[in-house]
Amino acid sequence: MRLSLLALFLCAGTLPAADWKLAPTPLMTKWGKQITPEKTPWAEYPRPQLVRKDWLNLNGLWDYAITKKGEAKPSAWDGKILVPFCIESALSGVGKHPTPAQELWYRRDLDASAWKGQRVLLHFGAVDWETTAYVNGKEVGTHKGGFDPFSFDITDALKDGKGELVLKVWDPTDKGSQPVGKQIENPHGIWYTPVSGIWQTVWMEPVPNPGPGPLYVKRVQFIPDIDKGEVEVLVEINSDALPVTAEVTITGAGTQSVQAGKAARVKVPNAKLWTPDAPHLYPVTISLTREHRAQMMREAGETVSSYFAMRKVSAGPDENGTLRLLLNNKPLFQVGPLDQGWWPDGLLTPPSEEAMRYDLEMLKKMGMNMVRKHIKIEPARYYYDCDRMGFVVWQDMPSAINRTKKHFIPPGAKQDADDQFTDTEKKQFNLELKAMIDHLKFFPCIYCWVPFNEGWGQHDTNAILKWTKEYDPTRLVNGPSGWEDRGYGDMKDAHIYPGPGMFPIMKDRVSVLGEFGGLGLPVKDHLWKDQGNWGYRTYKTEEELRTNYHGLMTRLHPLIGKGLSAAVYTQTTDVEVEVNGFMTYDREVMKFDVADMAKWHKTLFGPAPEVKELVPTSETTGQTWKYRTDAPPEGWAKADFDAATWSEGKGGFGSKGTPGSIIGTEWTGKNIWLRRTFELKDLPAGELMVRFHCDEDGEVYVNGVLAASLPGYTTGYTEVPLSAAAVKALKAGPNTLAVKAKNAGGGQYIDVGLVEQIPAKK
């Protein structure tokens, strides 16, 4: 996106760097270290889906002040803040958090005098949360929403094209009812440092103001139809007072005139389809003309540029009749990370587009084809980069807090009923959900919408999912991602840590694994905090981490053969005290060998191995076990141990409400011991694995020999390899499977079986 000479001239002036210095932070990225107030941050054109020639970037040093809520505009300012970085971030130069009892003010001068005779639009990429804007003391607009872009026409408030811009921002963070994502006043665990105020690019641009009024493009939308070789084009303009024609020129497909404000279908001959391996984009130029029929004349409006892709999102059966995620009518297994987009120096704002793109470049090198953008909306250029680089994006709606209990639902907690939101809270959530879809539905990379995650602020679930599907029928809608499923949605989404695992295949919904893994490795000198770091499993060396990740991929592969259509690993980078990223939080250390990862991921797209059940779990039918909850005598796991006095019950064993559990026998005590016998006609030749769901700290024995240790807890069924000693202990004929598990707090559950993994024939 090239700046015009006018834009370069307008951007040339830089506010003085007095009173600004980097705020304290535990970590910095290499891109953050390059930021200075003398160079405009985020200088790229911020709206790649609708590009105009002339514009003015307003990022840079502004005045700021924090006052009590309700006070008038400050007469003095606290200092300088570097926009577009939020006030809590190191790169803002401030490092303070306004409380819900305070308001954040911004001030800077504007100069649009070079655009005389045109309308001037003021744009904000995102401001968290309630924004009121004043130009020369005149209120020009308000906006509520922390993640979506908004604009004000400020022409009439300017004086000779100039003015003083003042913003007042109020952000209640998690003390309010609005969507906040992972921000919280008291950051800890999986909840992060709050973000207030401006955190995406602020900019101005002129639009034509000819004849009886302004004439410019407000939005463009392209809906491809690869089955008919057409694309539906909609050019929305600012007025429908007179007929307006849009000349749409598609590179490689010619020019066609369409009526602005009305959808029209345009042929795209021999269409090149967009895929992750070949992400072809069609450049587009749009020129407006207005018809003055009474005067028998045509009036030229503006010319803008855009793009689109020919691709189709759907779900349908594969050659075996299994329901799959499809791209361009073909099954596409989707593998990628949970991508939260947090930065140690910029928090929600990446230090630069180069930094933001680096994450995607590394994921591409790892052989991944999708990202789940987790409860955050990125700058528009992120999605443009995904379009260009070939990433499928699952887009989460930023979560609201749980209003009934006044806090977030913690990981692993069960929410049997939807939360109760007030009508006002529902209205705001719906407004921000609609704003997200309106903003992002342009981008071809968006594959599905994810309105809810794990019960966080989950309300009116199926009504909201159905509305989303009807509002954008061109994409899939993920049922709640996690364990709070209500029976609706194109996908049924399991979260299983460390996993992997899946829901059984269904006739009407696609089985996906929306979160798994979370394998942690703290890297000294690259930590947000030296103590209190965590992962779902934490290792001490890179070798341990890589071996266990490879094991996850090995166990994931057969699930694809069973019907699993996508897998989302947690996560791209470490975030604050979470250390389960592919990279450290500062992006300085890659914990894996990228070439090895690419090989492991490539295998997932080949023929899947067969999985043969040797000893069934209780997932579909409750299996009979002998059990006891007081400590048994020594030798309790051996094949010849007499367990005649033990109680008998159906698996699985646990307490109601434990995520992913299928209770056959209630177990609420501290410890449990289990035994059962099974027959093998012949010794298996494939790789043997324990299939289990354990909460928590389990041990599995085969004929008295330790077969697997199951530390920590899982949130669903998964597999681990049998030990070599246990494989040797197996025999044709009767065998004994023995299990011990304990409850250290929270949910509790244990169910175990054995499976054989047989490699696919080449």
From TrEMBL:
Residues 96-173 form the Glycosyl hydrolases family 2 sugar binding domain. GO terms for biological process: carbohydrate metabolic process. InterPro entries: Beta-gal/glucu_dom_sf, Galactose-bd-like_sf, GH, GH2_Domain-Containing, Glyco_hydro_2_cat, Glyco_hydro_2_N, Ig-like_fold, Ig-like_GH2. Residues 216-292 form the Glycoside hydrolase family 2 immunoglobulin-like beta-sandwich domain. SUPFAM superfamilies: (Trans)glycosidases, beta-Galactosidase/glucuronidase domain, Galactose-binding domain-like. Coiled coil: none annotated. One of its GO terms (molecular function) is lyase activity. Residues 1-17 form the signal peptide. Residues 353-478 form the Glycoside hydrolase family 2 catalytic domain. Keywords: Glycosidase, Hydrolase, Lyase, Signal. Pfam families: Glyco_hydro_2, Glyco_hydro_2_C, Glyco_hydro_2_N. Belongs to the glycosyl hydrolase 2 family. This is GH2 + CBM35_pectate_lyase-like-retaining glycoside hydrolase.
